[in-house]
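Why this split exists: single-chain examples teach little about how molecules sit against one another. For that reason, every record in the complexes split bundles all components of an assembly together and asks for one structure covering all of them. Below is a record exactly as it appears in the raw files.
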Amino acid sequence: MSRKKDPSDQPFRDSSAKVENTAYENNENQDLLALKRLIYRMPDREAPAGLTESILSSLEPKTVPGWVRIYRWALRPRTVTFQPLKLVPAAMVLVLGLAIAFQFGPWRKDPGSMDPRQASLIPVTFTLSSPEAESVSLIGSFNQWNPAGHKMQQLGDRNTWALEIRLPEGRHEYAFLVDGKMVVPDQSSPFYQSDGFGNRNSVLFVSRDEPTNI
Amino acid sequence: MFAAFLVVASVSLSYGQGQPADQSVTASIRAARTAGVSETVLNRLMSLAADHRLEDDGVVRLLNFFQTVQTEDLPIDPFMGKIEEGLAKQIPLDTIAAVLGKKLEDYRFVRRVLTIKTEEQEISHQDLSRMVGSLDGGITREELARFIQEASAQDLSMLARATEILALLKQVRFNESLTREILFTGLRNNSLTQSWDYLARVVATAKRRQISDDEIARAARQALEANQPFGDFMAALGFTPRDLRHGPAVGRSAERNQ
């Protein structure tokens, strides 16, 4: 055990730095110095044998709840290093797993099972020959005469525009809206209805019943 | 329905915060609602007004028109459809209003004729619209009135079907006197059922195949008198369904190509 150094041997930093202090402070410093000298002149005694062991044995280990340890673990910052090339197999496995899940999972839509409302509709294909048209839309009583969403597609021959939609059974009026402004009836339909505005709407009968599906 | 109510309510509210002209829109919406015009119809109209940027006085005019239609217990949908059709075809609102007015007169006319014919018998909106539609299909009011007066009116749905077929057969230039014979036979025998909606299509195809009007009429009369299925009439003319396909292709593409 090393001998403690007497504080009176070294300059008392506080007391020497503050020479301009009041007389009261000087007296207090003197008392402190005297007390320190007294403590340092006391004889050193060896600690009793087994003191360290007895202190350590009296300390019981702390039990930390599991959730606290998990919480601390989760909060602890970590650095992850990886090599991109080594991730490729894992990514492939993930993609494969997702593909299988979508193909055979419970949310997969059976092509045979259709929304009942859709199933009750009958597919009808409309065509118009108009090689000079820039755009053609189908408007009719079935879409509230709204051309949005019923744009026809130009076929490979560049002359014919076509669109297949599903319609409920019954009688429908329709016309083609060419380039957004010109109303053209369907020349292939033998029936028509005056629209009152100076044009004709074509008339179509849709039936599920095959013998009358004409 | 609730969403539609919210839209109309919000439109009403926004109009209510505007100028005097806007207030008249709000008042018209309220009046139309009070008259019984459905929220769905009001919503459709206000959406159209927004989409096509209709002036307030135009909207008021249409709302007042709907109020009249509703008050007279006429179907609103055909009028709503005509507005949508007119706007889609970029027809000026004045012209649309004129067409609506004429259509309203057609409805009143047909109902008057039917009231004389059937007295207390109720007619559905659907059948009424069908009869009015025959006027747009090429027959005159006088022709329609005469046909209704001469026809048997046990079943108004069949009568409505007959007027529609009357117009369609006129379009394909089928002999008018034979047309009346066929239809009167069906009405008399109560056999002009729903499947006969397709009579005009069969006749159009038969005429293209050079089958005479007399021959077609004979087969139709026989089937209707014997209350036979429509398929028997087609078979009597030597048709299969495939022969009759014309106009837009009905059915799946794959089926059609087989």
